[in-house]
Each structure stands twice: as C-alpha cells, then as structure tokens.
Design a protein that fits this description.
- This protein is of the alpha+beta class.
- The protein has two domains: about 150 residues, Type Iii Antifreeze Protein Isoform Hplc 12; about 60 residues, SH3 type barrels, CATH 2.30.30.
- The protein contains two helices and 14 strands.
- Strands 1, 2, 3, 4 and 5 form a five-stranded antiparallel β-sheet that branches. It has a five-stranded mixed β-barrel with strand order 9-10-12-13-14.
- Strand 9 and strand 10 form a beta hairpin.
- About 15% of the residues are buried.
C-alpha cells in the first residue's frame, strides 16, 4: 500500500528577497504619489483670507454710511486676525447688521459672495463729535420748551444715549413726557409735540375738495399735535377723522 506524501516547498532566500523588493517598490510609488497630491493641495488648503481686503471693504462702507452724520465723524477698525480659517475670497461685500448703529462701539459684517460663502463681523469704533442739546434748567413734565430752556454742548454722540437731539428746532415747542433735570441731554423719546387739539375742545372741522370748502363745528375726541390724526364728533352725531391744525382746526381732505 503506497503512501501519498505532500511536501510543502518553501521559497528560497532569493525568492524572498525579490518579494520584499517588489513590495518596497510599490510602497515607494504610493508614497511618492501621496507626496505629490499633498504638495498640489497644500496651497489651496493653506490659503487664508487676507486682512487687508476685509479692512478695505469695511472702510468703503463706513465712508458711505457716515456721510450723513452730523459734526466731525471718524472711525477706528479693530485688528483682523491674519491666521483665520476662512478660504480666500475675491468678492467681498460689507454690510451693517440690523442692530448696528453708526455711533460708538459697533460691528460691520463682511460676507464672501463667491464659492466660499462665509461671513464675519469686524468691531469698529465710530466717533461723531457734534453739538447736542441739554436743558438749561429743570423742565417740568407737560410744560412746553421755549428758546431759553436749551443750550448746545459739544461732545461725542457715541458716548451719549441714542436719540439725543442735535438741533434747537427739534426741541423748542415740544413737551417733556417726564421731568428733565438741568444739564441733562434731551432725547427724542423724552419729548412729545404739544397738542393743538385737546379732548373735549370745540374745534372747527374744515372739509376741502376739488373747488369747494365746507366747515362745521364739532368736539374733539382725542388729543392731537400739529399734523396728527384727530377724531371729531359733529353736532349731527357723526365721527369724522382729520388732520389737526393750529388754532383748533381739523382739516379733512376729500
């Protein structure tokens, strides 16, 4: 009975050396190809958005937006990080956020209109040195302001509350909603226009149209300053709305 024998033949040393060399050659080719790919990709991956174009976009916007500001306006732009992770963009657009104001410390937005599609916000400090109004004496609530009740002072509007009045004609004739102390800056929200028509007052209702004018008497149903809407009840019981005018008149245009 014959025996079947299977002999495993191991490669000799020359064959092993050839296998190792072939493997090393393939690995070397792969490493070389990887190095070329990284070298080609490196400039794109490392390209960051430069600070100078961003700063120029902010400056261009500020120069336009600040043209209408009173007094002497100037600005300071905070430093922009050169080591940012933003992809370089050739089409930048600066904008003012909805909550931003052109006084004091604020922000300007800059967005990329290209494929990068990013946006950032840059801190700026805007100084507006101008005249503003302060009370020369304590002003009582409800008492109309006259010429001698206000005086102009000069300062940075960015360091004052929003709505500070800068021209005398904006205050004279107005009525304080609350008591205002001497030396206190006058703000628009602290004042209201004096009523030329008051509730219960007998007024003259004038209706004007194309080539005609009709007038009748009535009773005012609300307080209204010059140019505001006033409601009037006529002797016939009708309620008519018109524009309050000085002298106790309400004008209706048809």
């Amino acid at each position: 009975m014959s025996r079947l024998s299977i002999e495993s033949q191991a490669p000799d040393m020359n064959e092993l050396e050839l296998i190792v060399r072939n493997g090393a050659w393939r690995v070397g080719i792969l490493l070389a190809m990887l190095g070329v790919a990284l070298a080609l990709a490196s400039p794109v991956a490392s390209a960051r958005q430069g600070a100078a174009p961003v700063r120029k976009a902010v400056e261009d916007l500020l120069l336009v937006e600040m043209k209408g500001l009173p007094g002497e306006a100037s600005y300071t732009i905070d430093s922009i990080d050169e080591n940012n992770n933003l992809q370089a963009c050739n089409s930048l657009q600066a904008f003012l956020p909805a909550s931003a104001r052109l006084f004091g410390r604020t922000h300007v937005g800059v967005r990329c209109l290209g494929e990068a599609n990013w946006q950032l916000f840059v801190s700026v400090r805007i100084r507006v040195v101008s005249d503003y109004l302060v009370a020369t004496r304590p002003l009582a609530m409800g008492d109309p302001i006259s010429d001698g009740d206000v005086v102009a002072r000069r300062g940075d509007l960015g360091e004052l509350p929003a709505g500070v009045l800068t021209r005398e004609e904006l205050a004279v004739g107005q009525v304080p909603r609350v008591s205002i102390g001497a030396g206190q800056a006058l703000r628009a929200d602290l004042l209201r226009r004096e009523s030329v028509v008051k509730t219960g007052q007998q007024v003259r209702l004038i209706s004007r149209g194309n080539g005609f004018s009709v007038s009748t008497d009535g009773q005012a149903m609300n307080n209204a300053a010059e140019g505001q809407l006033a409601r009037v009840r006529t002797s016939a019981g009708q309620t008519i709305s018109g524009i309050a005018r000085a002298g106790g008149m309400v004008e209706v245009t048809r």
